């Protein structure tokens, strides 16, 4: 887990050209994933839109509230995230730290609450967790689901709310990049690469979301911990031997 970490590692290992496979390419992939999440939860988004029309603001307002922390953190820390936090050792630390969070959240999980119980404190806690996921390797979905478990939500409902909160953030980050003149020039320079990346990200994202929602109904986040720790150890070894 952690798509950003994997993108950074693949780019470094394959020595890909940053001009063609830089942040704009990352954004194209994330937008493809965001579209997949939108389609998978299309019924929920339609219901939320109808709630707004009918004057029922509670759930839409909670989603906006939960989106605020990562949005603010993204604006304030964009430069640091793009430059200082894309190194392989940062990814390794994020993988280990995220794994610790997964195990701790599962240890205290009570799973007594459902989606309809989400309140202001819940939205803020899960939103702050999503802001922490700006660090590569942490895993946006993993840490937000963990936050939901800590707040005693059922794993299935924590997963659903986590993906709902992630969608506006991913779309917002993509839109911000598209509005950046320099990034827009990059997009126009490599439309073929970005189009292929977008389509593949959409298809794999749709499959991944469907898998995660179904898998986490009966399995814990601890299933992902072993892989994350092995990957972190491999990264440290690769850096020590000069491979990365």
Give me the secondary-structure category.
mainly alpha
Looking at how many chains there are and whether they match, the oligomeric state comes to: single chain
Question: Which blocks of ≥5 consecutive residues have pLDDT under 50?
Answer: none
- What number of structural domains do the residues give? 1
H and E string: HHHHHHHHHHHH
**How many angstroms does the end-to-end distance come to?**
20 Å
Strand elements, count: 0
Write a short abstract of this structure.
The chain is mainly α and 244 residues long. Helices cover 79% and strands 0% of the residues.
What would your notes on this structure say?
By secondary structure, the protein is an all-alpha fold. The chain has one domain. It is about 80% helix and about 0% strand. The protein contains twelve helices and no strands. Helix 3 packs across helix 9, helix 5 runs parallel beside helix 7 and helix 7 runs antiparallel to helix 8. The chain is globular and about 55 Å long. It starts with a helix and ends with a helix.
């Amino acid at each position: 887990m952690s798509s950003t970490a994997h993108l950074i590692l693949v780019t470094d290992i394959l020595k890909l050209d940053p001009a063609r496979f830089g942040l704009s390419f990352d954004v194209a992939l994330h937008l493809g994933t965001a579209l997949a999440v939108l389609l998978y939860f299309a019924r929920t988004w339609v219901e939320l839109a109808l709630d707004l029309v009918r004057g029922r603001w509670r759930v839409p307002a909670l989603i906006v509230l939960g989106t605020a922390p990562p949005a603010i953190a993204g604006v304030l820390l964009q430069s640091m995230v793009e430059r200082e936090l894309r190194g392989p050792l940062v990814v390794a630390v994020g993988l280990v730290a995220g794994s610790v969070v997964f195990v701790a959240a599962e240890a205290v999980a009570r799973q007594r609450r459902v989606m309809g119980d989400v309140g202001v404190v819940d939205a803020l806690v899960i939103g702050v967790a999503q802001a922490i996921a700006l660090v590569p390797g942490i895993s946006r979905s993993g840490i937000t689901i963990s936050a939901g478990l800590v707040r005693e939500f059922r794993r299935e409902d924590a997963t659903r709310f986590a993906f709902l909160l992630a969608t506006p953030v991913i779309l917002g980050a993509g839109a911000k990049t598209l509005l950046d003149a320099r990034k827009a020039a990059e997009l126009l320079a490599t439309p073929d690469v970005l189009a292929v990346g977008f389509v593949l990200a959409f298809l794999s994202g749709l499959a991944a979301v469907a898998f995660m929602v179904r898998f986490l109904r009966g399995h814990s986040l601890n299933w992902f911990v072993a892989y994350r720790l092995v990957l972190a150890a491999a990264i440290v070894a690769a850096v020590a031997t000069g491979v990365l």
